[in-house]
Write a structure and sequence with these properties.
It comes from Arthrobacter globiformis (strain ATCC 8010 / DSM 20124 / JCM 1332 / NBRC 12137 / NCIMB 8907 / NRRL B-2979 / 168). This is Fructose ABC transporter ATP-binding protein. This protein has one domain: P-loop containing nucleotide triphosphate hydrolases (Rossmann fold). It contains 9 helices and 10 strands. It has helices at residues 56-64, 86-91, 109-113, 124-127, 134-147, 165-179, 195-210, 222-228, 251-259; strands at 18-27, 30-40, 45-50, 71-76, 79-81, 94-97, 183-187, 215-218, 231-236, 239-244. The strands form 2 sheets. Strands 6-7-8-3-9-10 form a 6-stranded mixed β-sheet, sandwiched between helices. The chain has a 4-stranded antiparallel β-sheet with strand order 2-1-4-5, with helices on one face.
């Protein structure tokens, strides 16, 4: 036998789905991001926390095309990308649920899931007269909600304005999960929700992770962050102060790093 036969098999190296390197973004004399780097891996929840003005929102906007960084590099699945608008990020499989949800209250659940991506009937009715395939979209919406395990939305024909806050959040998350083939970004998904509804949203986050879909979670709620996050990216004064895990640091440690009272 040759020496090569005794060499152990190499452990495959995990490749990030989303990479940011040395992102810089300024607004006049105000520095929003000062050389921030970030990695998001398949099947993980990465929480981003930080005090007001730490650069969380600016970082998320640069990752999702709402802002263009002054310098730095973004990669999706190893491919360098240049997002100039949110639609560019969506083309690459990155979907964002903002705190204001961006749902249309007057439309039903199915219409909201397909908002901006409406499907038309096949044949002349769809191509010439642009008739929407309402029945088909409702069927697919119900299938998607079932696949995500969302049991609180049984009727996809109900207007969103008749839903509770947690149910509206579930609609927005379901829309992101349905079309976000690579990354789902959730901005304060449990803000202004009760305990029961918050738990339902957190379970949705876990379900997305279990399906292998990575999630970026922005939240001020430390118990929620430590409940679902695999890693925690801490922003401070436009920089990444540390990246920790719930196993390596406590909530008190995270707050101390976030405020500058301690370092990782």
């Amino acid at each position: 036998m040759t020496a090569t036969e005794f060499q152990p098999a190499k452990t495959p190296v995990r490749q990030p789905i989303l990479q940011a390197r040395d992102l810089v973004k300024t607004f006049g004399r105000v520095v929003g991001l000062d050389g921030v780097s970030l990695d998001l891996y398949p099947g993980e929840v990465l929480a981003i926390i930080g005090d007001n003005g730490a650069g969380k929102s600016t970082l998320i906007k640069c990752l999702t095309g709402a802002e263009v960084p002054d310098s730095g590099e973004l990669k999706v699945s190893g491919q360098t990308v240049h997002f100039k608008r949110p639609q560019d990020a969506r083309v690459h499989g990155i979907e964002t649920v903002y705190q204001n949800l961006a749902v249309s209250p007057a439309l039903d659940v199915a219409s909201n899931l397909f908002l901006g991506r409406e499907e038309r009937l096949p044949g002349p009715l769809g191509k010439l007269f642009r008739v929407l395939d309402t029945k088909g979209m409702r069927r697919k919406a119900k299938e998607e909600l079932t696949r995500l395990g969302i049991s609180t939305l049984q009727d996809v024909t109900v207007p969103v304005e008749n839903l509770s806050g947690g149910q509206r959040q579930a609609v927005a998350v379901a829309r992101a999960a349905a079309f976000g083939s690579k990354v789902v970004v959730l901005d304060e998904p449990t803000a202004a929700l009760g305990v029961r509804e918050s738990n339902q949203v957190l379970q949705l986050v876990r379900d997305l992770r279990d399906r292998g879909l990575p999630v970026i979670l922005i939240s001020h709620n430390m118990p929620h962050v430590f409940d679902v996050a695999d890693r925690i990216h801490i922003q401070r004064l436009g920089k990444c102060a540390a990246t920790i895990t719930p196993q390596s640091h406590s909530m008190t440690d995270a707050v101390a790093i976030m405020t500058g009272a301690a370092t990782a």
